[in-house]
Amino acid sequence: MKCKLRVTDVSTGMYVAELDRPWLESPFLFQGFVVESRRELAQLRETCQYVYVNPERSRSDLQSKIRRLAVLDRGEGAAAHAAEPPAEHRFRAFKRELARALDIREKTRQYLDVLMDDARLGKHVSIQGVHTVVTEMLDTILINPAATLWLIQLRDKDEHTALHSINTSVLSMIFARHEGMNREDIETIGMGALLHDIGKVRMPKSVLMKDGPLDREEWDMMRSHAEQGHRMLNQSGGVSEQVKTIVLQHHERLDGSGYPQHLHDNQIDRMALMVGLVDAYDAMTGDWPNSPPISPHKALASLRKTAGAQFGVELIERFIRCMGVYPIGTVVRLTTGAKGIVVSHNRASRLKPVLMMVEDPRGEPYRKRPLVDLASQKGESAGNWQIQQALDPHDFGDERLRSITAAESLI
Ligand SMILES: [Fe+2]
Ligand SMILES: [Fe+2]
């Protein structure tokens, strides 16, 4: 038997069997769990209004209390159940988690710097550290994917490989979770993605950072990074076969156009293909020496249009669903001409995200950068709060810089 409880009545020791929304839209990895910490309790309160608690599987001293607290289900519609927690509530959670995620990213980056230096010097790669940082990243993702995704927008020009690896890892784990993988597999894909380009440390800087097209020989050298990385991990030991396969195969494509082995279809490992797709997406949205960044929205549209044969139409569609129509970090123009940056999604309405406003309709920057939840705009004014277009970062001048300042102003 399950009892419907107001989330404010839930306490530690209770077994939550069901939420008022799909599990996949929640930060919880397990479908049914005993609330064990205050943190889990806080997460529940941020996510739901009601939950269904199983008294038999809860701590024995709580069973009669649960039955007493149970509210009658008067058949409120599913829409009422799926109502979002108030925007203010979500903003607060977002700010808190952004600060935490920033901290973890900084730690991960410092760790990667050491790891890459070691690898460059021919030392062995310390796998225990990779495991630790991936687990920490995964924990923040599970609590607030929006804050973690926001971080992906924040990068400096000269931090290509390290930050690209962190981004690919975070996005791959978010994607894996969306695909319904279990915690162990999500960690594995996160590790594989974090290490996917480790072979690049063996590439000469003149090739890696070349400002201009690569010649044939340089391309061949660049393409050897997948095998180089695989070899390095073989030598260092302590890495699972699955992680090594991701590193070796992340440039293989379903139509055989990839490398190093030109594999086809199901010869390619599923996780390696997912990391390959995320890698391509992050490369398109990042600022690289030879290609200026494009907006997350355009990158998804372009993958849909051109990469079906390489990754499979289904996988791309699922990735787009996972990222949202307007991925976090997208700069959008509203019908009024005002501009904002997507900072969070509304689960019920993907076309109406939460925006941080950066420019008013006359093109003047907002000094305080208000947060606006497009889904909660009602009546006549709702028409003014509609997205007209997603913008490219370079259409928006120093948007990247702005987004960094904006994010800092949030914390
Ligand atoms: Fe690569
Ligand atoms: Fe990469």
Describe this structure in words.
By secondary structure, this protein is α+β, with helices and mostly antiparallel strands. It has three domains: 3-81, no CATH class; 87-323, Hypothetical protein af1432, CATH 1.10.3210.10; 331-410, Roll (SH3 type barrels), CATH 2.30.30. It has helices spanning 38-47, 63-69, 78-81, 87-120, 127-143, 145-152, 160-178, 183-194, 205-208, 216-223, 225-236, 241-249, 270-285, 296-306, 308-311, 313-323, 399-410; strands at residues 3-6, 15-19, 33-34, 50-53, 331-334, 339-344, 354-359, 371-373, 387-391. A five-stranded antiparallel β-sheet has the order 8-7-6-5-9. A four-stranded antiparallel β-sheet has the order 1-4-2-3. Helix 4 (87-120) runs antiparallel to helix 5 (127-143), helix 5 (127-143) crosses helix 6 (145-152) and helix 5 (127-143) crosses helix 8 (183-194). It is globular, with a radius of gyration of 23 Å. The two termini are 43 Å apart. Residues 74-82, 398-402 and 404-411 have low confidence and may be disordered. One fe (ii) ion binds at residues 164, 168, 196-197, 279. It holds the Pfam family DUF3391. Residues 139-335 form the HD-GYP domain. InterPro entries: DUF3391 (IPR021812), HD/PDEase_dom (IPR003607), HD_GYP_dom (IPR037522), HDIG_dom (IPR006675). This is HD-GYP domain-containing protein.
